[in-house]
Amino acid sequence: MKEFAKDSYRVRWYGHGTGAKANPGCAAVVLCYDGEYAERVSKYLSPICTTLCVYAVSTAEEVGDDREEVPDEIDFSPFAAPSLRREGDIAGGGRLFLEDITSTVLPQAEQFFGLSLSYRMLVGYSMAGLLALYGLYQSDYFQAAATVSGSLWLEGWSDFIREHSFKTRQPDIYLSVGAKEKRTANPRMQRVEEATRDTYQYYLYDDEVKSVVFELNPGGHGADDADRIRKAVKSLLSQHRE
Q1: Which DSSP category does 165 fall into?
Q2: Per-residue pLDDT tens over the stretch 91-150
Q3: Where would I find the H helices in the chain?
Q4: Among candidates 165, 93, 163, which has minimal Cα distance to 130?
């Protein structure tokens, strides 16, 4: 593993192994919540292809402060919305995160690692999964996206995809959700499977989409998350080769 740092952003490269040789020029760019998450996911992905894990750190963590400070959760939401909790709101900071990583962070990281990529798959889980799809509308930097148990229930998403066009030309897309995820007390999150299927059906008949796959996984929201991401990347690589 090698790491590139720019401001509060970190990019970890897991590029050595049979996966990188089997799929040259291809990379999974995973939106991660922290370094520990990146390490766990990379064990599932590095045997398949080059893996770039992207996350941000808190200010205290960035400067090496020893204070016991819990980093703020990365805001991967593309839209502002009421919070699922009683306090605060979903801020919609994911757009800035995407802008930063596509304009400077990832290009500089790829140069630092000596990579020459032609097929980048933006992959995310939960709210990061929603942002992965949103990234295809904001930039043409990625050629594919996977939303794994993505927060497609977020208000405004269904209207957004019908009112906007991709910046990426003919992307490959993968969507999955757990069969038990809709079994929750939160009425907004109960819509997750319905919203994911609705997005899939819309993409299925969208001429702007090269290929789209939907998969219903067993279990709830947090079940086998890293393995679900592995399945998503394997599917996108197969779609790319078709």
Answers
A1: -
A2: 778 999 999 999 999 999 999 999 999 999 999 999 999 999 999 999 999 999 999 999
A3: 18-22, 35-45, 59-62, 94-100, 106-113, 127-138, 157-163, 192-204, 225-241
A4: 93
Q: What is the pLDDT of residue 168?
A: 97
- At 2, the pLDDT band (50, 70, 90 cuts) reads very high
**Do you know the residue count of the chain?**
242
Judged against a pLDDT cut of 70, whether residue 85 lies above it is answered with: no
Could you read off the pLDDT of 104-116 as tens digits, one per residue?
Answer: 999 999 999 999 9
Establish how many alpha carbons lie within 13 A of residue 43's alpha carbon, considering only the half-sphere containing its beta carbon. 8
Closest C-alpha to 211, from 242, 168, 172: 172
Give dist(CA 242, CA 227) in Å, integer. Answer: 23
DSSP labels for 76-124?
Answer: --SS-EE-SSSSSEE--THHHHHHHIIIIIHHHHHHHHT---SEEEEEE
Domains of the chain and CATH, by start: 2-241 (3.40.50.1820)
How many other C-beta atoms are found inside a 10 Å radius of the C-beta of residue 133?
26
Task: Compute the distance between CA of residue 122 and CA of residue 135 in angstroms, rounded to an integer.
Answer: 8
Q: Is the pTM of this model over 0.90?
A: yes
Give me the residue label for tokens 């890293």. 226
Residue with token string 């630092």: 112
Q: Are 135 and 145 in contact (CB under 8 A)?
A: yes
Token pair 């959700």 is found at 177
Cα(74)–Cα(10) distance, rounded to whole angstroms? 13
